[in-house]
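Sorry to interrupt, but I need a hand with the structure work. Could you add the entry underneath, on a fresh line?
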Amino acid sequence: MKNLILISFLFLGIASADGQTTTSNSDPIRIGIKIAGGAVVTRPEISFLGNNSDNYLSMVELSHATPQTSFGLFAQKKFGWLFAEANALYSNYGMVFNVADYSGDKQDLHQMKERFSYVDLQVMGGLNSHGFRISVGPVMHILSGHSSELAVLENYNEKMRKISYGFSGAIGYNLNRFSFDLKYDKAFRTVGDHIYYGYKKSPFLETPDAITFSVGYAIIK
């Protein structure tokens, strides 16, 4: 319910701005649907899961991320050379880890996966000219789902954050009812932000930044 309220305020904010703007340089508000896909950019990184006696139990290596997909709604409003945009997107992506369980000098290497689902609420603003746009803005990630095969590991712990934040930059182009955007999302959390070995937070430093391409279609224009 809280997520729905936040989304409602996000779009009502832009809609009210449309009603208050009467200058000849402004255009009607565009509201429509958007789909996006891209890559979560991470590099391999290794951490070691230990027990309370500081003995290593497993090596946990971040291997790679699976593609990110998103879909949802957008609202866009021009003010002469300026414009504002709000997005409410449901996003999914995954992380793949190589895990080696220690047994003497022999290691049994196998893969384990995590899946994440977020409701991403974002407001962006910037410049536009002849259909071309460039913009920046903050984003709020609201966790809506998570599953992890790492949970079976001995001494593994999870402390999920329900809300996290990020910042984005994008370039785009409007063609009639269509909107095309190439966006870079910088996450203000690490891939191991929620992963604890016992009571110790895992030392992962990589962040789940994403490069995505989206296509929007304005139902209201």
User: Anything to note?
Assistant: Residues 14-19 have pLDDT under 50 and may be disordered. Helices lie at 2-20. The CA atoms of residues 96 and 113 lie 5 Å apart.
